Amino acid sequence: MLKPSDRIVILTGAGISKESGLDTFRCAGGVWERVRLEDVATPEGYARDPDMVHRFYNDRRRGLLQADVRPNAAHDALARLEREWPGEVLLVTQNIDDLHERAGSRNLIHMHGELLKARCGVCGAITEIRADLSVEDDCADCGAVAEMRPHVVWFGEMPLEMERIYQNLATSALFVSIGTSGNVYPAAGFVQEARINGAHTVELNLEPSEGATLFDEKIYGPATGAVPAFVE
Ligand SMILES: CC(C)NC(=O)[C@H](Cc1c[nH]c2ccccc12)NC(=O)[C@H](CCCC/N=C(/NCCC(=O)O)S[C@H]1O[C@H](COP(=O)(O)OP(=O)(O)OC[C@H]2O[C@@H](n3cnc4c(N)ncnc43)[C@H](O)[C@@H]2O)[C@@H](O)[C@H]1O)NC(=O)OCc1ccccc1
Question: Which cofactor does it need (predicted)?
Fold first, then answer.
């Protein structure tokens, strides 16, 4: 069905990191059951209580840096696909963890940002971070005081590299969505973009997502089983 030169675009969400020990957002016991999205993942929430937002992301960052949190078989299979597929494989993730990179994925877009990076609210400089972030942190580049925020895309903010993503969706022969519930836009609209351009669309998830009916093919089950089997 696919020609070796064909482009493949893959979208991943929190479900692919679940079996690595990282919580999803909307499943039972998920992140948004514990904290209000409006308080910790919006610019308004940050303006209201930056300490609360820093605590939220510092906790997740420490969780990500735990020794037992590492890429799983699904992350590994996608890195292998990128290495072995003769055509281009672009991996677009909504996840802010670094498990795709640790698995070896390179042609990767973090459309919602990265937990191990901070950004200056004044000059936009981006720095790598592994320790806690707080309102005390100043910008090493422009010296702005207390302006360092998590380099993540909050609700109401424009996701990253949207142009490059739409260009690749417009020329993809295969679009695969893995471990996402299809609730958050514009990511939830990518399947429609891919379909419009004639791509074959596949959903790999634990259960049907909001956009399940838009996929040509659906395979349900844990990612660590479904993704390696699909890549094989
Ligand atoms: C809630 C929703 C209604 N709101 C939005 O979508 C909003 C508003 C909006 C825009 N357009 C719309 C159109 C209609 C309605 C609303 C909107 N969108 C925005 O504000 C976006 C910005 C959204 C980004 C917000 N930031 C996040 N995160 C970063 C921070 C952080 O992480 O803290 S979103 C957050 O939700 C994303 C989606 O969640 P999922 O990854 O899908 O996780 P979820 O828990 O929901 O699902 C997990 C799935 O995995 C499955 N699963 C579980 N275990 C496993 C397993 N083991 N194996 C396989 N699958 C598994 C489960 O079954 C489940 O289906 C996450 O990735 C995460 O990034 N910005 C924007 O639109 O800018 C303008 C614009 C417009 C056009 C074009 C460009 C720009």
Answer: Zn(2+)
